[in-house]
Specification:
With about 180 residues, the chain is of the alpha/beta class. The chain has one domain: P-loop containing nucleotide triphosphate hydrolases (Rossmann fold), CATH 3.40.50.300. Strands 2-3-1-4-5 form a five-stranded parallel β-sheet, sandwiched between helices. The protein is globular. This is ATPase AAA.
Length: about 180
């Protein structure tokens, strides 16, 4: 049995990284770190890049976690500390339709505490364009960073595959380390 104590969940926005993190936390007992909550400052203000790198380094130094988020600029930091990578490599259609549904149903809300204080769900055309273009403009860069990862990799190409992985995980015992 592979030890799973530090898990990176990566992929295009809308793939369901935060939902997957919560589901995995229910199975494993590992704490979830939603990077969006740490990145976005009130009013959707971005942090200073050096401060952001430091924040992610501090989060990754924790002994146990499931960390979800895109943030390609810190993927190498997270993978260096992780033992497991779950890559949600879903189609543009799946991701874009999920972002659209999430946005329209959650307008004005904070997405279950996943977002930073003062950041409510909103219509954001540049973000939606990012989702539509992710596979063409960012996916190869992320795959290159992931290719150097030495831990256990689960690359899921559909929500159905991810559901099968969760069923498999639910059948295996996870020792929850005492803190």
């Amino acid at each position: 049995m592979n030890l799973m104590e530090r898990v990176v969940i990566a992929g295009c926005p809308g793939a369901g990284k935060s939902t997957a993190a919560r589901r995995l936390a229910e199975i494993t007992g590992l704490p979830v770190v939603h990077l969006d909550r740490h990145y976005w400052q009130p009013g959707w203000t971005r942090p200073d890049p050096e401060d952001w790198q430091e924040t992610v380094s501090e989060l990754a130094a924790r002994p146990r976690w499931i960390m979800d988020g895109n943030y390609g600029s810190t993927l190498n930091l997270r993978l260096a500390a992780a033992d497991t990578l779950i890559h949600l490599d879903f189609s543009t259609f799946v991701c874009a339709s999920r972002v659209l549904r999430r946005t329209l149903t959650g307008l004005g809300g904070q997405r279950g505490g996943e977002l930073g204080d003062g950041c409510q769900e909103r219509l954001d055309w540049p973000f939606f364009q990012f989702v539509l273009n992710y596979r063409r403009t960012r996916r190869d860069r992320d795959l290159e960073v992931m290719s150097g990862f030495g831990g256990t990799v689960y690359r899921m190409e559909s929500p159905r595959q991810l559901e099968s992985l969760f069923r498999l995980f639910a059948k295996r015992p996870f020792a929850v380390a005492e803190i």
